[in-house]
Write a structure and sequence with these properties.
Arc Repressor Mutant, subunit A; seven-stranded parallel beta sheet; Rossmann fold; 4 domains; single chain; alpha/beta
């Protein structure tokens, strides 16, 4: 059945769509046939559609034009489920150019939610962009979503690959879209769009969004990008890679993005490049939302040469003339890599895409993989401790299960999607519904993750066409059995970038990266619910350590490799270079009172290393050497990731030392600090034994 107004023919509808496109994209813009096919299938035929097209194809134009045409027919607002704040801001700006009244509901505009809800109810909003997390907010789910599902003119799932399996440990809320789609009327069209999906993901998305029947439209295009010039530059040493980038950044065209794998690496690299005179800034998931918006604007307006970013700057950020994308460290998946490099060269003839892999990349991949979905007994414990009537908050649940806050929230969301728990006002309740741990699915995810990591290593080493390699990984339907090489990448052209860095530049870079020392903020509050574990600790921490110092992060560009080698190697006395760095950190430490004594924290893995640091600091700093804070016999090291369980396992771990004669602050030395709870409880032991203050010094922290 076709749905059109009585006064508008098919030709007139297309003319209307063309006019809207010109408002969106400029006076010379014209709809391509495949774009019109998608629009007409939604507006005229009310079909469900899956559009898998490369970045820059014009997917957002399709759904904004469709939204406006549907409103002209008297249909309700379009609901767009959108994953990232950057994506939402760009989409709202684009919608306004076409006269579309758009609003967003996301974590960055909490104060505007009530007003937007009222606008939706009053019918003054054409397009509502919703973050996936809002779909299970109790108020939104119960008060706003039902009317949207009943009255929506169109539902759009953007970046729809997040619905698929691999997204469960990325954005679990995305999988809840299945419920939204299932509740729609039969004449409400659904559009799912993505640029990054191989055959497995396409099939999964289509099934979950109900676009597999014969009436559905699947538009899947080729992924070749003729503007992209791919290259890999192999420089094993982290400092040399950073120095090379500092030198080459001037030569890269226009403004671009430099991706790093961790927050720490992004910050360090941004500081280094800024010191070298480049106009850059760090952009990570920890960047304040208002600052993110300002940084995106600065890049869009070419006010910076580059943003040094984590994957937080990715899907949806749209700068058509982005001149380059550089990766300092390889993503763990060719799919993720293609998605990020696809930001470049949308409206330019040439964009440079450079990968600078490092030997530490696989360690970082392993760390991210280690925080995937937990084992069955841990998940079942979450269900067991939930009541079916009385809601429990995440904070209240945390001391009852062996999961940290982030992973607990992820598990609860997955269980909610699976129907085992339900989010209500005040927290979570159990539903009592039977639940099965889908071990085969999680095994498939692990296998897929390992295969993608191996493919990323092969991409770095291949002598074949790099674009062809990426297109094959994404099952590009246009690739064919005998594809022609792209003729642009370093392998096709035989052009290799020089890896040489002059000695002076390298020395300056090493000096900057070798500057040791970062702050170690103390824990301020005991975990909630410790009494449930039989531990009488609550509220503010009044007997913990002062602000401490760490020599460096394992993810640091400078100290990271050396510290990893030190901690991965045999337990030996501290090397002179590392000890000298510790002395430098102490010299720069702005403490209220200088320590008078030093104490080594007994280490299970590095006892000689830690003891030697403490002993040499005692000698050089003329501090009293208190030896080692020893564990009580038979008291094992605490290994729980959950804060409450970790604290419970650390209480009374150490033999109270004899501090007679130690009349000032004590310097407490450890090899590696992660959560900070070990140093907190050790410091508490010393404070209870009479220490005036405790100043923690650790050699490394993971990130």
């Amino acid at each position: 059945m076709a749905y059109m107004t009585a006064t508008e023919t098919a030709a007139e509808l297309r003319d209307h769509a063309e006019a809207l496109l010109r408002d969106l994209a400029g006076p010379n813009a014209r709809l391509r046939e495949d774009q019109w096919t998608a629009i007409s299938s939604l507006v005229v035929d009310r079909r469900r559609a899956l559009v898998v097209q490369r970045t820059g194809w014009g997917k957002s134009a399709v759904y904004f034009i469709a939204a406006k045409l549907m409103r002209a027919q008297g249909r309700g607002p379009t609901v767009i489920v959108s994953p990232l704040l950057a994506l939402m801001r760009n989409q709202v700006a684009a919608a306004e150019r076409a006269g579309v009244r758009a609003a967003t509901i996301n974590s960055g505009n909490v104060t505007e939610w009530d007003e937007i809800h009222q606008q939706v109810a009053a019918g003054t909003v054409d397009v509502l962009l919703v973050s996936p997390e809002r779909l299970n907010n109790p108020d939104f789910r119960d008060q706003v979503l039902p009317s949207l599902a009943a009255d929506a003119g169109l539902v759009v799932v953007d970046e729809a690959h997040c619905v698929s399996d691999w997204g469960h440990d990325f954005r679990p809320d995305y999988r809840r879209i299945r419920t939204l789609v299932a509740d729609l009327g039969t004449d409400v069209p659904v559009l799912a769009t993505t640029a990054t999906a191989n055959d497995r993901v396409v099939a999964d998305v289509a099934a979950q969004l109900g676009v597999t029947d014969g009436d559905a439209l699947v538009l899947r295009g080729g992924l070749d990008r003729e503007s992209l010039h791919l290259a890999v530059v192999d420089i094993p040493d982290a400092a040399e890679r950073a120095a090379w980038l500092g030198r080459e950044l001037h030569n890269l065209p226009g403004a671009g993005i430099v991706y790093a794998l961790t927050v720490g690496a992004a910050r360090d690299l941004a500081d280094l490049l800024a010191d070298q005179g480049h106009r850059v800034a760090a952009y990570t998931g920890q960047t304040d939302p208002a600052e993110r918006e300002a940084l995106e604007s600065a890049l869009l307006n070419n006010e910076v040469k580059a943003l040094v970013a984590t994957s937080a700057l990715g899907m949806g950020f749209d700068k058509p003339d982005l001149g380059f994308v550089v990766h300092l460290g390889a993503p763990s998946s060719p799919i993720a890599y293609y998605q990020q490099v696809g930001r470049a060269g949308r409206s330019t003839d040439r964009a440079e895409v450079i990968l600078l892999p490092g030997p530490e990349d696989q360690r970082i991949w392993s760390w991210f993989a280690s925080v995937a979905f937990p084992r069955e007994h841990v998940v079942r414990r979450v269900i067991e401790v939930l009541d079916e009537v009385k809601p429990q908050s995440t904070a209240a649940l945390e001391p009852l299960v062996e999961l940290n806050r982030t992973r607990l929230e992820m598990v609860l969301k997955v269980l909610d999607v699976d129907g085992a728990v339900h989010r209500v006002r005040g927290g979570w309740i159990a539903t009592g519904a039977p639940w099965e741990y889908d071990a085969p699915r999680y095994e498939r995810l692990d296998e897929a993750r390992r295969a993608e990591q191996q493919a990323m290593l092969e991409y770095q080493q291949t002598s074949e066409c790099r674009m062809e390699f990426l297109r094959r990984q994404l099952d590009d339907p246009d690739l064919g059995s005998d594809p022609a090489p792209c003729g642009r990448c370093d392998n096709c052209t035989g052009t290799r970038r020089s890896t040489a860095v002059d000695a002076e530049t390298l020395t300056r870079t090493r000096t900057r990266l070798d500057r040791p020392g970062i702050d170690l903020p103390p824990r301020k509050q005991w975990p909630t619910g410790m009494s449930k574990l039989g531990v009488p600790l609550s509220g503010k921490i009044t007997d913990g350590p002062e602000t401490g110092r760490v020599l460096g992060r394992l993810s640091d560009l400078g100290w990271g490799q050396r510290l990893r080698a030190l901690l991965d190697g045999p337990d030996e006395p501290v090397p002179d270079a590392v000890f000298s760095a510790c002395v430098a950190v102490l010299k720069e430490w702005d403490w209220a009172q200088r320590p008078t004594a030093v104490l080594a924290l007994e280490s299970h893995d590095h006892p000689r290393l830690v003891a030697s640091v403490a002993a040499r600091l005692a000698e050089v700093g003329r501090l009293r050497d208190l030896g080692t804070l020893a564990r009580r016999p038979g008291h094992p090291p605490a290994s729980a990731a959950n804060s409450a369980y970790r604290v419970a396992g650390l209480v009374d771990s150490w033999e109270p030392p004899d501090l007679s004669g130690a009349d000032g602050p004590i310097l407490l030395v450890d090899a590696l600090t992660d959560t900070g709870w070990t140093l907190t409880l050790a410091a508490r032991t010393l404070r209870l034994a009479g220490a005036a203050a405790v100043l923690p010094l650790a050699l490394a922290t993971p990130k």
